[in-house]
Amino acid sequence: MSFSVELRKEADPIFNAIFEHPFVQGIANGDLKKEQLIHYVKQDFEYLNAFIRIYGMAISKCKDRKDMEMFNKQISFILNSETHPHHNFCQVADVKYEELQGYPLSPTAHQYIRHMLTVAHEGTLGEIIAVLLPCPWTYWEIGKRLLTEVNPDRSHPFYEWIHFYGNRTDSITTKFCARLDELVKEATNIEKEKMKEHFLLSCQLEYMFWDMAYKLEDWPVKMEVIQS
Ligand SMILES: Cc1ncc(C[n+]2csc(CCO)c2C)c(N)n1
């Protein structure tokens, strides 16, 4: 069994819990409150900014152009394409995308971003791929399952979202898995254990991100944001 297949197997209960989560089920049946969609987009916009920066940190650890190109393509993808599913949520919530940008991070978004930043700062290239992988992998599986199980028509409010994630053929997940499986061959047992740990924690944080949006999670004590 390849390392990536081993990781997917261990994470199976988390992948299933994510699919069963009421926010994901809300995408399936078109039943989400405007505030939940707005909270998700506000937090995800900042999450994607952090993701782009982490790809930049990954590039700084690459030894060859092929790896650099892989991450560079993903930066462009986030900047130019990952905006489509956000626009879908904004349209359903009847808000302008620009109005949802620049908000402070919720506790869970903060935790997830800090987890990825720590690994990007301290880890090897293999550890960085392991920490980033649950992001595309969980969304790809959600998209594919919703596409087959819901098979939405154009009148479905989240038709665009489901097709965007479900229809990816040239998947970054496949590329990351292949690269991780190569890198693990040269890794020590300690590094391999760290890769697994980072991957599983990111899977848990993917679940928590949906939960954060669904429950409109915020800090226990609200602070006034002082604009300079
Ligand atoms: C919390 C959270 N997790 C995953 C994604 C999906 N996603 C974000 S960046 C990217 C491309 C990776 O190169 C994908 C698939 C999201 N939007 N928000």
Automatic annotation (TrEMBL):
Homotetramer. Its EC number is 3.5.99.2. The keyword Amino-acid biosynthesis does not apply. Residues 9-215 form the Thiaminase-2/PQQC domain. The gene is tenA. Pfam families: TENA_THI-4. This is Aminopyrimidine aminohydrolase. It comes from Pallidibacillus thermolactis. Keywords: Hydrolase, Thiamine biosynthesis.
